[in-house]
Amino acid sequence: MVRAIKSGALVVAALSSFAALNASAGDPALDVGSSRYVLGITGFVPVICRATVDATSVPATAGEVSLGTLSEFCNSPNGYAIYADHSAALAGGSIVVGGQKVQLSETGSTRIRMSDRAAIQSNGVSLEVPQGVSSAQIAFRIVPL
Predict the structure, then answer these.
(1) Contacts of 52 (CB under 8 A, 6+ apart)
(2) Kind of pairing, strands 63-74 and 119-129?
(3) Binning pLDDT at 50, 70 and 90, where does residue 38 land?
(4) Do residues 62 and 51 make contact, with C-beta atoms less than 8 angstroms apart?
(5) Mind listing the pLDDT tens digit for each residue in 67-123?
(6) Is 75 helix (H, G, I), strand (E, B) or coil?
(7) Are 105 and 90 in contact (CB under 8 A)?
(8) In 3-state terms, what secondary structure has residue 10?
(9) Is 15 strand, coil or helix?
(10) Do 102 and 112 form a contact (C-beta atoms < 8 A)?
(11) Could you tell me the pTM of the whole model?
């Protein structure tokens, strides 16, 4: 951090020297007595979104099974949506994220969270497995809006 400040100070000092040199050479656009300089910087930040869950495998038993914590990070200024992509065997079950229960759809993809702005959050997540399910898969994906 200190190095960046020193570099910035050198740039401003160099600009000051350059401006004074040019002003003394008769450049009409610069004011010799002015001690104010403007330096504009433009940058572009890529949109990065991640959604991860602690658990990699859980026992296939009917009832509620903890998947750990759903960690979400997305810097999209328009927000994001998180989907659970799951096996057909889990249709009829539900997922609970941060205390909010969402019914899993028949299509195999269910939107479980949505935000209208960039955010970093962590919430407990559990899966309510329907009776008779012996094996299934679920994955989480995040989509910037």
Answers:
(1) 70, 71, 140
(2) antiparallel
(3) confident
(4) no
(5) 999 999 999 999 999 999 999 999 989 999 999 999 999 999 999 999 999 999 999
(6) coil
(7) no
(8) helix
(9) helix
(10) yes
(11) 0.69
